[in-house]
């Protein structure tokens, strides 16, 4: 047929000797026009099974190896990506907890220019502002305490100053009316002296409670 139609093709057949036992044959037929002949190359299917199975096993082994390698690389890349993105976030979370506990000197390193770097810079700025505000709040609280103490001192000094003035006035009056040889004259002098000392202490309290004069600076 190949010779008549001048074509090439494949042929699969059982040998005529014993088709029931012997394996099939596979033949390649090519028509060679210069000689007007058909060139046939044949091979048994068993001879093809060995190389085909070997090739199949190699392909499967190569595919399994590639799957393992690609899977390992994917796991490593996923771990690296997770570590790259989660480590700064965990570090920032830990720093926030420390700032919340009162350690306002906590700072984060700014090593990148991406969103994480901007977050770290914003966190550092927030910590600095909190530290400055806390210092200002402590200063204002101290000033309020001092102001309250000054107001209280002024009120106390004012309330005590009036009766002390009366006591001092009467002591001076008695001192001028009594004879220095009178045994009670010494007691009147003690009253006048201690009254003056109390009035001096009250004057110091009033000066402390008074606002200081401003110091003008350029």
- Rg is 55 Å
CA-CA gap between termini: 119 Å
Low-confidence stretches are none
Our count of helices gives 4
Helix share, percent:
55-70%
> Quick one: biggest sheet?
3 strands, antiparallel
Average of per-residue pLDDT values: 79
Broad structural category = mainly alpha
Globally, the shape reads: rod-shaped
| Strand percentage | 5-15%
Number of strands: 3
Q: What spatial order of strands do you see in the largest sheet?
A: 1-2-3
Order of helices and strands: HEEEHHH
Write up this protein.
This protein has a three-stranded antiparallel β-sheet with strand order 1-2-3. The mean pLDDT is 79. The radius of gyration is 55 Å and the shape is rod-shaped. The N and C termini lie far apart (119 Å). The chain has 218 residues and is mainly alpha-helical. The chain has helices at residues 2-5, 45-100, 115-177, 185-209, and strands at residues 9-13, 25-32, 37-44.
